[in-house]
Amino acid sequence: MDLALAGRTIAIAGSTAGIGSALTTLLDREHARVLLVGGRSERLTALAQMLSPETPIGIIPGDLRRESDRNRCTNALLGSPELDGFVFLPVEFRPDAISEVRSSEFRETFDVNVFSAFEFAQAALSRASSSASFVFVSSIDAHRHPLHTPSASYDSSKRALESISESVAVEAGSRGIRSNCIIPGLIRTPMTEDFFGQEFEADRRRFLDAVPLGKPGNPEDVADLIMFLLSPLSGYINGTSIPVDGGFLCQGL
Which terminus has fewer CB within 10 Å in the chain: N or C? Predict the structure, then answer.
């Protein structure tokens, strides 16, 4: 299927691991142009070198825990070419209970997961075309479920991200700009790889028993949906949050 993404310019924040790498590779195959924002310089360079020469139009490294780096990335977005899409993938994860998490850790999680998203999206909106699509990536951990484990700062930051996406959808819709959020379940990525070790075998089986499809997802499962939401083929989808979780959340909400 032709997703009509050829020649469209997409800014991707968080492109070098897991879902982001899969997405960037798929966009390359669709002949889109990508601006890679945030992350380590060496990893961004390595990713860009794997793409077709015409695909990457720039790399903007930055540690999103640092305000100065976030400002540099934001300023680069403000000076970017017109954008047909913006995807936000960066994540800071801590398995912290609300009674134990320190305010400094809570703040750092929000710096990466929320303030970066807000600042980058605000800049991207100033450069967005009249058919641009914004996609944010949340998590099943933003929603209560019987198998939910404590991760207070991560959970609340991801719920805030869904709200940011809705705000963009409502406020920018009159310009033809769409915004949607994806809610991944257990996806096997570098961030979750430890959960697939022998140490967590019992926990993993218990979790997957609660997934109707009975298996984890892979990065392409999420990247494929992001591609569709970026595409003009999804032109009337706006303001939604879509689980990609094998049916996990529908049993506990």
Answer: N
For residue 3, being part of any structural domain is answered with no
Is residue 27 included in any domain, yes or no? Answer: yes
Domain of 111: which CATH number?
3.40.50.720
pLDDT band, very low/low/confident/very high, at 252 (cuts 50, 70, 90): low
Q: Are 147 and 241 in contact (CB under 8 A)?
A: no
Tally the domains of the chain. Answer: 1
Taking each helix axis from N to C end, the angle separating 67-78 and 116-126, rounded to the nearest 10 degrees, works out to: 20
Task: Give the amino acid at 152.
Answer: A
Could you tell me the pTM of the whole model? 0.95
Residue 1 lies in a domain: no
Q: Is residue 2 part of a domain?
A: no
Residues annotated catalytic, as ranges: 154
pLDDT tens digit string along 156-202? 999 999 999 999 999 999 999 999 999 999 999 988 888 899 898 99
